[in-house]
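FAQ: What does a ligand-bound record look like?

Like this one, built around iron/sulfur cluster:
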Amino acid sequence: MKGKKKMADSYRIAVNVEWTSKCNALCSMCPRDAIEHPQIMSDATWQQTLQRLSPQEVFRVVIAGYGEPTTHPQFFDFVEDARRHPVRFDMVSNGHLLDPDKLVHLDGAVGLLIVSFSSIDPDVYRRVHVKLDQQRVMENLKAAQRLLKRTKLGISLTPMPECLPSLAETIGWLKAQGIDALTMSPTLYNRGGNLKEHQLASDKLRQLIRQHGLHSQELDFIPSGREIFRQWCSNRYKCVPRNVDLFVSSAGEYLYCYNDVGHRHPIGHVGSESIREVLRRREGMAEIPALCDDCNMRNRYGAGELLKTGISFVRSRLRQTA
Ligand SMILES: C[S@@+](CC[C@H](N)C(=O)[O-])C[C@H]1O[C@@H](n2cnc3c(N)ncnc32)[C@H](O)[C@@H]1O
Ligand code: SF4
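The answer part, i.e. the structure of the complex:
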């Protein structure tokens, strides 16, 4: 028992913090409509969240969630708080509001700024990134490349079937701007069954990721091989996507799983519990049928998938050290 507890206490996770579940877009792949009461995170909840984050437990905080962080009215103050905090912060944005003022302020406060981009083809972009202005996002990307000195700019390429025919051209444009940290998720998540109509085989996406020399986003949630092993041993339910990450919603609730888009399965609150306390509770929990039964991430990581992911992880670490 003592040994088991020690193992559970010695792995780190990623935390996904949702500054807001409101958004200025209506992207076709995003199942945000499942959120009944979109809201912004209050300053008090953000301060409590910051107090819960320590580098001993958390190797990376991604400010993303299911909304657009740049729309938060206290964007500048929150970024300042992140700058002063010892944990590493990254941010994911649709790029529409990333004007030079915001970019200069973000510089150095986040390690990696990831902008989601569907396609260089204006028709595809309009259909996927609904309500956003492609030209404006492209101008902001050019400005980011120019202005960011300490923050790395990355792109999250949308793994939607309709984006793939123009993928090579999209990559060509980004590289021509000097943007080379190009990432893609090998899974078009159905977010716990919320996106049934779009299923794209992971194998096809993995092959495209290899073919175009992209960075696979699943590797970003692996702190180290040893820690993934410890996560695996400590959790009763061996679901890797659930166990590598802890989601803090805009209401300050820890969610059972990142893929709970509807925010229907909270397992604690930043105001009353630490990350370790809530992880211990989750470690003992089984799957939640209403959420897990329809999830296309479930059983994603059987022995074969884990091995493939492990090989990619080692390859990417070798590339980084080369
Ligand atoms: C949910 S968004 C939130 C942050 C920000 N509003 C944005 O669009 O980048 C975070 C990331 O998830 C990606 N995403 C959204 N829906 C997805 C899906 N069904 N499958 C895979 N990735 C998805 C987006 O492309 C984006 O890179
Ligand atoms: S910008 Fe992000 S959060 Fe907003 S609809 Fe698109 S994917 Fe969803």
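Follow-up question: can I read anything off the structure? Yes, for example: Residues 5 and 253 are 24 Å apart (CA to CA).
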